[in-house]
Design brief:
The chain is of the alpha+beta class. It is globular, with a radius of gyration of 13 Å.
Length: about 100
């Protein structure tokens, strides 16, 4: 995936499902109000409601997606972010969310 428009569409879908994602992943994440931190060792994925998704390694931001831009430090970070975007918007994940309700 290299099209910024596709990423923005995925970001919108994820933000539209934010509360469901937050509830479904509560055992595998830390929820702090409008922020969800998902653990994928050695990485963490930070979802800030209606704002951005960021990928971190320790305290270093590797990739960040907002409605205005997508930035990443290298191809590996881009691939990991794209993988998470696909996972959080996939049909299988949506079915998982529906079953968790």
């Amino acid at each position: 995936m290299s099209d910024c428009l596709d990423r923005k569409e995925m970001l919108k879908k994820i933000m539209d499902s934010f509360e469901h994602i937050k509830k479904a992943l509560r055992e595998k994440s830390v929820c702090e109000g409008r922020k969800v931190i998902i653990f994928d060792p050695p990485y963490t994925l930070h979802l800030m409601k209606d704002e951005y998704i960021a990928l971190y390694y320790e305290n270093e931001e590797l990739a960040c997606l907002t409605y205005e831009r997508f930035s990443f430090c290298d191809d590996v970070a881009c691939q990991i972010m794209d993988s998470w975007l696909k996972t959080l918007t996939s049909f299988g994940f949506k079915r998982f969310l529906l079953r968790r309700r």
